[in-house]
Amino acid sequence: MSQLPRLTEADVVQFLEDHPEFFIGKDALLSDMRIPHNSGPATSLVERQLAVHRERNVELRQRLSDLLENARRNDQLFEKSRRLVLALVEAENWMGVQAALDDSLRKDFGVDAWAMLHFTERQLEEPLIAIHSTERQRTTHRLFKGHRAICGQLPASDIAMLLGVDSSDAKSVASAQIRGRDNNGVLTIASKNPSYYRSSMDTLFLDYIADVLALRLPQIPVG
C-alpha cells in the first residue's frame, strides 16, 4: 500500500484559506482547539478570534477618529485662510496688508514672528520689508535651492535674512516665495521651538497665501 503524502503546515493553511467555512457547525472542535499566547495561558480559537476582532475594532475606531480629527483641522484651516484672504482683498493700503497678515498669522495661526520681504523700490515698514538690492534678492532666492518653499531649522544667518530683523528668538521657519509678474518676494513665519517647523511638513497653506499676495500686492497703491 502506498504511503499517503505527509501534510505540511502550508498545506493546512492553504486548505483553510480555500475553505473558510470549514469550522461552521464544528463548535466542539473550535472549543477544544487551543492557541498558545506569548503573554499568558493558551486560549481557545473562538476566544482568540474574538480578541482579534476586538483589536481590529479598536484600530478601526482609531483610524476613524484620526480621519474626523484631520477633517476638523482642515475645516479650521480653511476658515482661517478664508478670513485672511478676505482681509487682504479688503486692504486699501500697505498698512492694511500688514494688519491683515499680522492679525491672522499671530492670532489665528499663533506664529511667534513673521515677515514679508518684497522685492520692490517702495518704502515699507517692518514686518513688511522692501528689498531694493538686486544682489540681496538673488541671495535670498538661493536659500530656496530651486524649491518653492523651505521649512525647518536653518542657520541663524539664513533666518535673519528671511525675517529681515533681529531673529535671535526664531529657531525654525517656514518660507514660501511670492512669485508674480514684476512682483516677487518671500513670506516667512517663525517659531521659537526648534522642531515646530520641520523639513517634512506640508507648506500648501503658505504657498496658497503667497499666491494670493502675488496677485494682490500689485493692486496696492504706492505710498
- How would you sum up the global shape? elongated
Could you give me the name of the CATH homologous superfamily of the largest domain? GAF domain
- Poorly predicted regions are none
**Beta-strand level of the residues, as a percent range?**
15-25%
Number of strands: 7
CATH class of the largest domain: Alpha Beta
Organism: Thalassolituus oleivorans MIL-1
Protein name: DUF484 domain-containing protein
What would your notes on this structure say?
- With 223 residues, this protein is of the alpha+beta class.
- It folds into two domains: 10-90; 93-219, Beta-Lactamase, CATH 3.30.450.
- Helices cover 48% and strands 18% of the residues.
- The protein is built from seven helices and seven strands.
- The protein has helices at residues 9-18, 27-32, 45-90, 94-108, 134-142, 156-163, 204-216, and strands at residues 34-37, 40-44, 113-119, 128-130, 149-152, 172-180, 183-191.
- The strands form two sheets. It has a five-stranded mixed sheet, with helices on both faces. A two-stranded antiparallel ribbon has the order 1-2.
- Strand 1 (34-37) and strand 2 form a beta hairpin.
- Helix 3 (45-90) runs antiparallel to helix 4 and helix 3 runs parallel beside helix 7 (204-216).
- The longest helix is centred in the N-terminal third of the chain and has 46 residues, at 45-90.
- The N and C termini lie far apart (105 Å).
- The mean pLDDT is 84.
